[in-house]
Design brief:
InterPro entries: Put_CMD_sf. The chain has strands at about 15-20, 25-30, 40-45, 55-60, 65-70, 80-85, 85-90, 95, 100-105, 110-125, 125-135, 135-140, 155-160, 160, 170-175, 180-185, 195, 200-210, 220-230, 235-245, 245, 270, 275-285, 295-300, 310, 315-324. The chain is mainly beta. The strands form 5 sheets. Strands 6, 12, 13, 14, 18, 19, 21, 22, 23 and 24 form a 10-stranded mixed sheet that branches. Strands 1, 2, 9, 10, 11, 15, 20 and 26 form an 8-stranded antiparallel sheet that branches. It is globular, with a radius of gyration of 19 Å.
């Protein structure tokens, strides 16, 4: 398997000390800003018809404050991270949503706090609209302003250029899990619905080999796959590893069906060479020694179904790196 191809410049790496993986020691390459110690702070002024509040929204990037309000965010400082925090402008109404926060881990050390919560929109004090949001961070960017709740994946540019073949995704984490064994579905329309079953926090990583055809469509094959769901609370676990499985994961021991190839209707999106956001259609498993072109990393306080979650479920993450 190829291990020596240069790491793409969009991600950027800082060498960290190795950690022990049983009998094996992994060399770690931290993803830029993966120590979660620096954050961008910005403000959204919400429309008067929904209260006229000022909302603080955080992004992972250099320590800075963006002056001015209601501006679509473009990642700063070469940050490869996007978040589910957004500025929305729907039907003339300005709204901010924040479910990812910087949190103090100890002393000056910070981490990312991702939480599932209900965002309530009260129009003129009369109409209540509830939306379930699950705090998520991912490699890529959110395309702002958000103008509708339709097809949420089309608002996310998912994945960044990457050509190495790591053995694992490595990170520190902690989970706060609510006691209720239910989930809530709230899309903003039709009220809230209670569903059975507790949600799970989730982390997954995909390596893809992508290419674009003459019409601007983006195709992909899955080079490697890894993921884990967290369904119980825990204290901090440092240096946790999610191993990557190369080639056809569906034929390997321990295959998890939720990590299958993405169906076309649930494809993630990326910007093509013409500047248009298009779905990235996974067409099959790639060979185990294929060279990837992109990496997808997602960490979320929800299992991935849009507008569904367990209120209060919180995932803390820190020191995100690739292990070799």
């Amino acid at each position: 398997m190829k291990r020596s191809i240069a790491f793409a410049s969009l991600v950027g790496v800082v060498l960290m000390s190795g950690i022990s993986a049983g009998a094996e020691t992994l060399r770690l390459e931290k993803i830029k800003y993966g120590d979660m110690n620096s954050w961008v702070t910005r403000t959204v002024g919400e429309s008067r018809v929904i209260g006229g509040n000022k909302r603080t929204i955080y992004e992972i990037g250099p320590n800075t404050t963006i002056a001015g309000e209601n501006k679509a965010y473009v990642p700063l400082g070469g940050s490869p991270w996007g978040t589910s925090n957004v500025y929305a402008h729907v039907s003339g109404i300005h709204k901010g949503s924040n479910a990812v926060y910087p949190d103090v881990r100890s002393g000056a050390d910070r981490c990312a706090k991702l939480t599932s919560k209900i965002e309530t929109l009260k129009v003129l004090g009369l109409i209540n609209l509830d939306v379930m949001v699950s705090g998520s961070i991912f490699l890529g960017r959110m395309i702002e302003p958000i103008t509708s709740t339709k097809n949420p994946y089309s608002k996310m540019e998912m994945g960044v250029p990457y050509t190495k073949c790591p053995k694992a995704l490595v990170f520190d984490y902690k989970v706060d899990m609510p006691e209720e064994l239910t989930r809530t579905k709230a899309t903003g329309f039709g009220g809230k619905k209670t569903l059975p079953g507790r949600d799970a926090a989730v982390v997954f990583v995909f390596l893809q080999r992508r290419w674009e055809d003459a019409q601007g469509n983006i195709h992909a094959k899955r080079v490697a796959t890894g993921g884990e769901r967290f369904k119980v609370g825990s204290g901090w676990k440092n240096g946790h590893q999610i191993p990557l499985h190369y080639g056809d994961y569906s034929s390997q021991p321990g295959y998890q069906k939720w990590l299958k190839l993405l169906p076309k209707e649930r494809s993630y999106y990326a910007r093509n060479s013409k500047g248009k956001m298009v779905p990235v259609v996974e067409e099959g498993w790639d060979s185990a020694d294929a060279t990837p072109t992109h990496v997808i990393v997602m960490m979320s306080a929800g299992s991935g179904e849009a507008y569904v979650g367990s209120e209060g479920l919180t995932l803390y993450v820190d020191n995100v790196a690739f292990g070799f």
